[in-house]
Specification:
Length: 366
């Protein structure tokens, strides 16, 4: 079993990675059980994995309450949050209990946020079941819902107590979701790890074919990268964590344009956003056109979008820039942008004007 620690002092927690882990999770979760019960939140698409976990827990507690939510990005909303909070209060949850979030990033972000506000803070255990949630959202404590004004605008930092990653559950993940999640894997390479990029470029086909060894390696590298950044800059105050937002200012604007529907998945939006960030960096004369082209080719191979026309979207630069004005990194009226000096070398630029980004987007025909 791979064990990665998120070094946050008194709030440090382990991330455990092993294929088949869900079936062995009973004794690992047992120490977190209070009141002889667990509240397990998931959606119908992971019902089989919920059953595996339930079986593994039998004998370790009296009762499991299954709270079932609707799948899809629309659930990460005020309505989704209210429904979940009502369920938790109806179950008379106590602060000392740990809610188990079994699912993708939508479940993880929603349950994490609910856990942060119910009774002023209950525990949460993340059991991610998509590639995206295994490499990214389950780690680091960012929780949120979307609102009409923008992506993840209401939320809290609320670290989990434990993260259990079973790459075996990816066997049932739809292909589109696997590819979307891959965008966040590639992100770690693009922001700071050129060697990982080379490895990904060689092993892309194996990963997308769900080769177990390749997936486990990519998940472990990604999780280690994320854990290190989070330990360094938990609340995104020094700029280190902002690197994890590479491609996201563009991507979140595209997602907002869809009304946070599943027309464009988060990972697809991030893929398009990373390709845009590379080309914008080329336009600014800081990145070689060669590197931007390499990344676009790589994303094409993964069947991921590479521009603002992703999945038939057709918003003007001005409209997308208006979405970007809501970015949480905004400071003094200006939105900093993650740019790139080349593959593996991203940085936060504070001198970008939204009008410049809008003009770039109108000129970029991809
Ligand atoms: N908190 C963070 O740090 C962070 C990081 C990255 C992304 N996010 C958020 O994560 C969300 C996206 O998460 P996602 O890509 O996991 O999507 P998701 O949670 O919507 O899951 C994708 C789909 O796959 C289904 N599913 C999940 N696991 C499955 C499995 N093993 N087999 C079959 N079906 C399965 C789900 O029911 C859903 O329909 C976005 O809201 C994004 O903003 C958060
Ligand atoms: O953990 C982080 O920090 C990230 O930025 C990870 C991103 O992949 C993720 O999509 C995150 O939710 C975006 O954060 P936000 O602060 O821009 O909402
Ligand atoms: Zn993301």
């Amino acid at each position: 079993m791979i064990h990665v620690e998120v070094g946050l002092g008194a709030r440090a927690y382990p991330i455990l990675i092993e294929s088949g882990l869900l079936g062995k999770a009973g004794p690992i979760i047992a120490p977190f059980v209070r009141n002889d019960r667990l509240i397990l939140v998931h959606d119908r698409n992971v019902a089989a994995h919920a059953a595996t976990l339930t079986d593994a827990l039998s004998g370790h507690l009296g009762r499991i309450h299954h709270v079932i939510v609707e799948p899809g990005e629309g659930t990460k909303s005020w309505d989704g949050l209210k429904a979940l909070v009502d369920d938790l209060l109806d179950l008379e949850i106590e602060r000392s209990e740990c809610i188990v979030a079994l699912g993708g990033g939508v479940i993880g972000d929603l349950v994490g946020f609910a856990a942060s506000i119910v009774k002023r803070g209950c525990g949460v255990i993340q059991v991610p079941t998509t590639l995206l949630s295994q490499v990214d959202s389950s780690v680091g404590g960012k929780t949120a819902i979307n609102v009409p004004q923008g992506k993840n605008l209401i939320g809290a930092f609320h670290q989990p107590r434990l993260v259990l990653i079973d790459p075996g559950v990816l066997a049932t993940l739809p292909d589109r979701e696997l590819r979307a999640g891959y965008a966040e894997v590639l992100k770690y390479a693009l922001i700071g790890d050129p060697d990982f990029y080379e490895w990904l470029d060689i092993n892309l086909d194996a990963l997308l074919a769900r080769d177990a060894g390749a997936l486990e390696y990519a998940i472990a590298v990604s999780v280690r990268a994320k854990a290190a950044v989070v330990a360094q800059d938990e609340h995104e105050t020094t700029g280190a964590r902002a690197l994890l937002n590479f491609g996201h200012t563009f991507g979140h604007a595209l997602e907002a344009e869809t009304g946070f529907s599943d027309r464009l998945l988060h990972g697809e939006a991030v893929a398009a956003g990373m390709a845009l960030a590379m080309r914008f960096s080329v336009r600014r004369g800081i990145c070689s056109p060669d590197d931007a082209a390499k990344v676009a080719d790589h994303l094409n191979r993964a069947n991921l979008p590479i521009g603002a026309r992703a999945n038939g979207l057709n918003a003007t630069g001005e409209i997308l820039a208006a979405h970007m004005a809501h970015d949480k990194k905004r400071e003094g009226g200006r939105v900093p942008f993650l740019l790139s000096r080349g593959i593996g070398d991203a940085f936060l630029a504070k001198d970008v004007q939204l009008s410049e980004v809008a003009a770039f987007l109108d000129a970029d025909t991809v």
